[in-house]
Each structure stands twice: as structure tokens, then as C-alpha cells.
Amino acid sequence: MSYIKVRKANCKNCYKCLKNCLVKSIKYVNDKVEIIEDACILCGVCMTTCPQKAKKIQNDIEYIKEYVANPDITTVVSLDPSFVAAFGENAPALGWALKSLGFDYVEEAAIGAKYVTKEYLRLIKEGKINNIISSACPAINMYVQKYYPNLTKWLAPVMSPAIVHGRIIKEQRGADVKVIHLTPCLARIKECNESQFVDGVITYEQLMKWLLDANVTPESELLKEHDDDGFDNEGGYSRIYPIVDGIVYDLQHQYCKFTGTEYIEGYDLVAVSGLANVTKILDEMEKGNINHAFVEASSCYGGCVNGPFMPKTRSTGYKARIEVKKYADNAHRSKHYDVSSVKTEYKPEPIHQDMPTEEQIRAILSQIGKNSRAQELNCGSCGYATCREKAIAVYQKKADLYICMPYMTDINQAMSNVTLSLTPNYIIAVDSDMYIKEFNVAAQKLFNITRLAALNQKLSNFIDTTDFEQVIANKSGIYDKKVSYPDLNIVTEQTIVYSSERNMAIAIIKDVTQEEKDKEALYNRKMESVNMAQKVIDKQMIVAQQIASLLGETTAETKVTLNKLKNLIDSEEMNNGW
Fold first, then answer.
1. d(CA 248, CA 263)
2. Helix axis angle, 186-193 relative to 138-147, nearest 10°?
3. C-alpha angle with apex 454: 449 to 455, nearest 5 degrees?
4. For residues 396 and 391, what is the distance between their CA atoms, to the nearest angstrom?
């Protein structure tokens, strides 16, 4: 199942998500971005760092609303302890707010955390595992399983607090009860979806939208009627989990050790947050430099209080930490439950990827002008830390070859220089004060001046600036305007465009002098042809008139002759007595 949907229309190929993705589970090919699901650990960084909001969670909650609306189904909310930082001063009303939506019961998932800590403590006392990596963060679990498979043996074989709490609820309230977990975590959604003890997940952002749609606000009269928080079961001191050192604090609390070094039963207690920091300690563990340590690991820097789906209005930084610590310190002793088991097993799930040879890497790099290590700038603009990593990604078909800012900049600059040098058009750019900022080779030849000498001179020293000033003033271009420069003996067709980024006017001036001469010559030839045709017509008219005159004379003579002949015949007939 895919948990991250890419809105391709929103993606502007800025590569910010790839730059921040530690495992590089994002694929850019043919201007399309895809999440490589098998490689992704669902840390959510790509979603929080995307400035265009091109990544969207895929987590349907409509079926949960159907559960809530069905009177025959009992629903229980398992509330992640980070809710204190998520909802701030409104947190005390959250229990009743959830019940106003139709949930039957609301409990704190910290109830499950208590038993997770107990199992961690048992493992520490048992001392059979060299290093113990906490398994409360599902993103860390996937990270170890996929990218440090040899360290999977050190992942604490313990369910996460959310899953343990779901199990407790079903064992206490019945297997048919629907457990709905509320979380700020993307990886938690996958973990819960794959568990038999949780029936649905709602992120804090989805919950806030649901509350708004239902018109449930802190000012609602329904919430003001209650003095308590509406929680059916509280989580005790294990509410401390969502901050850095939270698990360590809970271990010390249950071990009844609050002074001295962070050291229990021969194990150093270490807390680390943020994938980059977690990577460092895992590298050290893999090298064998760390032994007999309990490592509390969280993929989110600062802990769960900085999860990817925390509300925009959440408490941040140290304020969130203080709120969670205060909430935990004020907790009452939580109720005891007999949990059947909190144990689980994590197996290695290594990512298998084809790796190129050194010759193949060099061949790929040479295609983008990197023929030596000195040319490998390792600027990171493509999203990869080094040029070699980028070449490997290209080989693995995870990246386009030409996603290389320095290379494309060089190409664009070279093409720009070629265009400016070879075009026969005059290209001139001026700033708002009409000082020349660009002057190409053709313009240098026209005005018989070098580019260096022309730069920062007033354009008025060479040509009229009226059109340029109009473009700057109106912030709009003039296109295909015919302009004559008698002093230069040229006729031009010029387009002047406005650059809003630099507040400059850039002119592309085409010399159409020869075209104009050709047009004039063609016009003259046409007029000569017309005059010749007119002379021929005039001659033909004269000939026609002369012919008509001659025809008229002969016709008259014929008529006279015929009349005489007719009269002669008539007279002969009368004489013969006819």
C-alpha cells in the first residue's frame, strides 16, 4: 500500500524533498517524481520539507466515521502522548471533543508505553543483548531492518506503545471493539494497518479538520459542561515518551533511579533523535565501537512532538518538551493491566540494489563533463551528497543524468554565449536608467565599439531610447516594430521585452535594410510592368478605333450599292408588266 501520494501538478522539481531524504527513496525520471516504496521508511520528511505541498498522505478515515456512526460498534481512541504539545491549552478538552464526535471511550496510549518500558527494563536486566535499540519508533525499525540489517538483532523485540495499548484495549473491552489510534506519525499508520490490535489511524491534522467540520471548538458549550479531560484511562508517567530522553526518563522512573549517571545494570542509556544523528550512532555500532548501550532512537528530531502531522498551531521546540514533562510529572499512578504479551520479532529486510563498477561510474560522470575527481564539485544541488552518489542513482534509474546544476549552468551559459556571438541580430540590454548592460558581437560591429567600452554607457549615445523607456515605464514589451536609423543607414524590426526579475529592457534588433530594398525593387518592377501593360492597352484601343472607323465606311458604301441594285430590279419588273 502506498502512503504518500505525489501531486505531480504541484511538483516544481526543486529536489528539496530528495535533498532531505536520508535514504534517497525518491525517484526523479523524465520530470516525474515517484516515491520508491520498498526503500521508503515513512519518516515524513519529504512531506514537511516540500514548499509546494506536492506530497499528500493517503489515509482514508471515512470508514472510521462509519464505525463511529454505527451504534452497534464500540470505538476506543488510543491517544498518542504527544497530543499535549499538539493541542496546547486545548489539550484538556480533547477527550470530550472526541466523544462529541461519537467515540465511546478515550484512553492514553501511554498506558501501553508503561509495559513497553517494563519489557525494556527486563531485557536490560537480562543482559543477553549486547546493544538494545528501542523499537517504539516504527520509522527507526524500518530504517534498521532495511539499511542496517545486521543490527536488526539488536532491535528490542518489543511492540510499540500504540500496538501494546491496542492489545490491552481489546483484551479488556473485547476483541470486537474498534481501536482508533491518533498520531502525528506517518510510519505509525503503516505499523497500525499491519497490526491486528489497531483498526484505524487518524492523524492530528485529519482530526482537526473533522472537529472543524463538526463545529467542535474549544468554545463549544458541550465542552464547557465538563470539568475533567474526558479520558477513561490515564497513562501515568509514561506520558514522557514523545520527547528526547523520554524512554530513558521512564526507564529511570521504573528502575527508581533519578540520580547519578545514566547507567542501568551495566548499560549506558543513550537518547538520539533525527535520522542523521541516528545514522551516526548506528554506524558506530556497526563498527563495534559501541557496546552494552541502550539506545533510545527517534526518527523525528526532538522526538514525536515534532512528528510530520503535528498541527500548524502546535507548541514547538523546548516549549513542547516542557509541556510534555510537566504533564508526565503531574500524572497519577496508572491502572495495572495483565497484558498477555508485548513481545514481537523484527527480521532483516535489506534493500537490494545493483551497484555499478568504477568504470561505469566514471562513464556516467563523463557524460556531464566530469572527467576527473577535481571536476566532481559535490555541491548537492541535485539532491545527492556527492557526484558519485548521483552517478550510482543514474545507474539504478533513480535519477536523470542531467539533473546537475553546475553542468546545466555551464551548458546554458555556453549556449547563451554562442547565441549572443553568432546571431546576426543586434542584442542590447539596458537598465531602468538606460545604461547598457549587454552588447552582443553584432551590436559591437554596428556601432564600431567593443563590448567592454559600451557597457555602462548611456544608450542615448548610440540610438534613440524612447521605446526602451516606454518598455521600462509600462513594464510591457514592444514587438516587431519597424524603426529606421538614417544615421546608420539601416532599417530595423525590433522587439523590446521587459525583464521583471532585473527591471531591464532587452532588445532584439533585426536588420531588415536589405529586405526593405528588395521590397522597394519588387514594387518598382511591378509598377514598370503596370505601365507597360497600360501602354499596350492604349495602343490596342487606338487600333480598335481605327478598325471600327474603316468598318463603318465600308458598311455605308455596301448599303448604298445594295439599295441601287434593289431599285434597278424593281424598275425592270414594272417594265415587263409583272
1. 10
2. 80
3. 155
4. 9
